Write a sequence for this structure.
């Protein structure tokens, strides 16, 4: 296990320690379950995160999200609902956006994962990050890493011609419109309601026609 | 989540045998529904057999002009396939009406068919549910049933099959192809794949223990105008209250199946034969013998109006 932060106590420190201790206590709880339930045995997991090879020993239950946050300390990716409903945990796996909370790390042997930390940094922002800043595409910021990962992937999906629920002509060229962008972002919830600014940012980067 | 052991199968027969031979074992593919349920301990497999290495991610044309869709083809890839968009548009429309972009990227064709109900009482371990715990009772029958089934229900269960993709596959006469634990293959018409709750609502479908879906076959295209009209509480990323999958011909005939109303995709061939007479006649026949609750009887009216809208669009 990675070390748990020690004082001075910060809000993040408390949150990390809370999550880590919760993870530890689930092991004995599960062992007390039905007799047939196996005990947790760590398995080796190898994957590439933001271009860096990592090797870990993980309980089979560890989600990709918890692997990123708790084991690799890449806390840019956020845990919102932990059930695939909010999109805060969105990352790219082999170039495709997924909910990292609904995927087991052990199922990602050899996969290439890109998180918000891999898209850009404060000194060298991805164009979508710059556009979010410029258009004020957030308020509290908690959903923002997932929104940005999703937004980058959405533009690629439109370019690749993947149809959506609002696509009129399934066999024609895919239009880069706000309607297409908003429909495709429905898996990313923003409780602050920064949606219109998020779509302004996406429209700028994607060169939306309407 | 309960602890489990994990393996990656190398062949469909090996995967089927691995699940059949072990109590508490389950397949996992995309995992988007299974992991959600495992976190809530509604599902608690003791062993997972990961099928991602089985090379079932191709879409190929069949000798009779149809398509064979590999079990592991993602929902996104299936919806985006050029031939599906051109000749089976109802399927593309149904898939993109469901879930979110992230989920469709991960969810597989077979997994989508196997997704479990979203009945709120199935999801609440504090309340009885015959689907979750056999013979524990049904809290939904006297509960909040606005989203639940109106037809084909039993006194043990009023849950719906929640998906969109299968409604389109039902209207397309798709066939599910499987491998059984003894290595044999079997085909199951979509009409017989999902089952009604009856006395055993804990069984969602007609697969045997360890039986693995390897592909879904679509017959040759049937032409017509394709529609998937989904009515839901918000514009995107919500389950259907009612959905209509329809293929309508210029002479007024066609095929229609309803989603969000039953424990399986609801297609009544004797009802769709009445399409030339209009939506009222079709819905009256399709929902004959329905037993809605006070909360969800609106669904039958909604089904008629949704179908009427689709027919009007086809004629315009």
């Amino acid at each position: 296990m990675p070390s748990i932060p020690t004082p001075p106590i910060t809000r993040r420190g408390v949150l990390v320690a809370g999550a880590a201790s919760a993870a530890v206590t689930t092991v004995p709880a599960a062992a007390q379950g039905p007799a047939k339930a196996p005990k947790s045995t760590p398995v080796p997991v190898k994957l590439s995160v933001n271009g860096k090879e990592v090797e870990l020993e993980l309980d089979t239950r560890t989600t990709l999200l918890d692997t990123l946050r708790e084991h690799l300390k890449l806390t840019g990716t956020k845990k919102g609902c932990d059930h695939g409903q909010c999109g805060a945990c969105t990352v790219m796996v082999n170039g495709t956006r997924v909910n990292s909370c609904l995927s087991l790390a052990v199922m990602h042997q050899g996969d290439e994962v890109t998180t918000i930390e891999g898209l850009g940094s404060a000194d060298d922002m991805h164009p979508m990050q710059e556009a979010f800043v410029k258009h004020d595409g957030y308020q509290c910021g908690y959903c923002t890493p997932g929104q940005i990962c999703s937004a980058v992937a959405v533009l690629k999906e439109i370019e690749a011609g993947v149809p959506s629920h609002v696509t009129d002509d399934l066999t024609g060229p895919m239009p880069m419109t706000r309607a297409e962008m908003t429909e495709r972002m429905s898996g990313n919830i923003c409780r602050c309601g920064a949606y219109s600014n998020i779509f302004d940012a996406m429209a700028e980067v994607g060169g939306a026609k309407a | 989540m309960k602890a489990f052991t994990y393996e990656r199968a190398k062949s469909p027969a090996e995967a089927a045998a691995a699940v059949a031979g072990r109590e508490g074992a389950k397949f996992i593919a995309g995992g988007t529904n299974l992991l959600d349920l495992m976190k809530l301990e509604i599902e608690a497999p003791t062993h997972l057999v990961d099928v991602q290495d089985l090379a079932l991610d191709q879409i190929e044309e069949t000798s009779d002009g149809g398509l064979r869709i590999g079990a592991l083809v993602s929902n996104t890839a299936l919806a985006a396939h050029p031939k599906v968009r051109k000749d089976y548009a109802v399927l593309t429309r149904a898939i993109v009406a469901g879930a979110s972009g992230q989920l469709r990227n991960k969810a597989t064709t077979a997994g989508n068919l196997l997704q479990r109900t979203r009945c709120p009482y199935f999801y609440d371990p504090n309340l009885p549910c015959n689907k979750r715990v056999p013979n524990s009772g049904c809290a939904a029958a006297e509960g909040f049933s606005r989203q639940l089934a109106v037809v084909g229900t039993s006194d043990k269960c009023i849950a719906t099959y929640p998906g969109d993709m299968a409604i389109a596959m039902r209207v397309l006469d798709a066939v599910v192809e499987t491998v059984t634990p003894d290595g044999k293959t079997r085909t199951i018409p979509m009409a017989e794949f999902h089952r009604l709750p009856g006395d055993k609502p804990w069984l969602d479908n007609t697969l045997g223990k360890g039986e693995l879906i390897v592909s879904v076959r679509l017959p040759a295209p049937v032409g017509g105008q394709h529609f998937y009209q989904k009515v839901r509480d918000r514009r995107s990323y919500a389950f259907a209250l009612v959905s209509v999958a329809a293929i309508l011909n210029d002479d007024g005939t066609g095929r229609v199946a309803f989603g969000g109303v039953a424990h399986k995709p609801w297609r009544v061939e004797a009802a769709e034969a009445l399409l030339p007479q209009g939506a009222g006649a079709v819905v009256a026949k399709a929902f004959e013998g329905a037993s809605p609750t006070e909360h969800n009887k609106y669904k039958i009216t909604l089904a008629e109006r949704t179908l009427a809208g689709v027919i009007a669009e086809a004629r315009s």
Observations:
- Residues 11 and 54 of chain B are 6 Å apart (CA to CA).
